[in-house]
Structures are given as structure tokens and as C-alpha cells.
Design a protein that fits this description.
mainly beta, single chain, 128 residues, five-stranded mixed beta barrel, OB fold (Dihydrolipoamide Acetyltransferase, E2P), 55% strand
């Protein structure tokens, strides 16, 4: 099995759906990569990963746009045809472990969005 670890920020609030009688939440995570090209000029590239988490429990309310997360899961590439007829691909992740990372501190010392411990799901129990 291939396992992917990802740290990034949510691009939008998570959405909820049902498939095969099971609840799934979908969200996208962006990771900014900074590097210098051969000429030494700073560059930045954003990599987007579309994520699906099956039977997520009560975590959806914490998955809001801009929230930093650490994820582990099984990656796969989804190929599709664009409206223009081009073959395209997207990186997707079946999330098996999710941990919200600390947000900005408030005056009282707590984070803006505090959450219970990380959520772990067995990779074998995913319905696809």
C-alpha cells in the first residue's frame, strides 16, 4: 500500500454526501511549495489534493476554509475528460488519519478552532 502524508490548508469548507449508505465528507487541501529555479529566482507552486473521508464522525464542523491540517491516507489519481475533450487528472486522497493543526491564538490563550484528538480510520474499511 502507498501512504501519503500531507500538510496544508483547506481551500473551502467540507461538504457532506452519502454513498453506499455511508457518510463521506469531501474537501480540498492546498500545499504551497516554495523553491528557486535554475536562475535563482524564487518560485511558488500550489498543489491541490481533493480528499474524501468516510464515516468521519463529528469532524466536519472543524473543517473550514483556511484551517491547517495534517492528513495521512491512500492516494490515487482520477482521470477524466474536460468539457473541451481533454484528458485531465487530479490527485485524490482517501483520508485514514486527520489531525487539525493549531490555529491563530486568541487573547484568552486558546486556538480559534479547538478540536479533540486526531481521527484515525482503518484503511481496510474504506468502501472503494
Amino acid at each position: 500500500m502507498i501512504k501519503l502524508q500531507l500538510v496544508g490548508r483547506l481551500g473551502q469548507n467540507a461538504t457532506e454526501a452519502f454513498a453506499n449508505g455511508k457518510k463521506v465528507i469531501n474537501f480540498s487541501v492546498a500545499h504551497n511549495e516554495r523553491y528557486k529555479n535554475k536562475q535563482g529566482v524564487p518560485q511558488e507552486r500550489t498543489v491541490w489534493v481533493n480528499c474524501a473521508m468516510w464515516e468521519p464522525g463529528a469532524v466536519m464542523s472543524y473543517l473550514v476554509q483556511g484551517k491547517a491540517v495534517y492528513l495521512e491516507g491512500v492516494p490515487w489519481v482520477n482521470q477524466y475528460q474536460s468539457l473541451a475533450g481533454e484528458t485531465k487528472a487530479e490527485l485524490r486522497l482517501k483520508v485514514t488519519y486527520l489531525q487539525l493543526l493549531p490555529g491563530p491564538k486568541q487573547e484568552g490563550g486558546g486556538s480559534v478552532h479547538e478540536m479533540p484528538e486526531a481521527i484515525v480510520q482503518p484503511a481496510d474499511d474504506l468502501p472503494f
